[in-house]
Amino acid sequence: MGKRPVWLLVRVSSGTGHSCSACYSTLGSPDWYGGSIVQATWRRDTAVRGKFQVMIAGILFMVSIVALGQFALYYWRAVISGVSTQPISERVRTAAGITATQIGARDFHSILSLHDLSPDLRGPNGTFIGLRAYYSVIEKLGRLIPATAGWANVEMLTCSRYIAVLVDQHLERNMVCAAQVRGI
After folding, report:
1. pLDDT at 184
2. What residue numbers bound the domain in which 39 lies?
3. pLDDT at residue number 37
4. CA-based torsion, 46, 52, 54, 57: positive or negative
């Protein structure tokens, strides 16, 4: 007696009214398993690749850039606040034509003009582009939105004191350099 083939009838239903049936034999070639047990569908079961991954990467990149910019702005403001607390000599107030005992929020431009007039004998002589832009934006915000006027005044005072400290340091470096030149 020879081996009798065992026939296997497979019926698969997808639940959507579609069904598939196949008849397989255990005898014959090793590739008796002729196809998929589950009916092929056009719907994807995996995540879509391509455009969506690029979009997620772009969103993460933009969030990182915004966070870095926010950190840089806070650091810059902290440096300005720290420097503005240093003492300012009488020489700066006199040279800038400020008659008040303390430097005020509106003295920014007069101190800046003193900086522009003083020669650069030694050390860096910055143009303060960022500080000028920040001061003008804060000044406009204070005028346009009355609720922020108090905050804007404090910020403008900080900017004025910061520039006064830097001009004082600049004048001090110039005096030291001039004294060294006279001593030669």
Report:
1. 72
2. 1-43
3. 62
4. negative
Which among 160, 174, 51 has a CA at the least distance from the CA of 112? 160
For residue 56, is it within any domain?
A: no
Higher pLDDT, residue 118 or 160: 160
CB atoms inside a 10 Å sphere around CB 30: 5
b/e burial code for range 37-69 (CB count within 10 A of at least 16 → b): eeeeeeeeeeeeeeeeeeeeeeeeeeeeeeeee
The whole model's pTM is what? 0.65
Q: Residue 118 falls within a domain, yes or no?
A: yes
Say if CB 107 and CB 98 are below 8 A apart. Answer: yes
Phi, psi of 56 (to 5 degrees): -65, -40
Question: Which residues have C-beta within 8 Å of that of residue 130, sequence separation ≥ 6?
Answer: 76
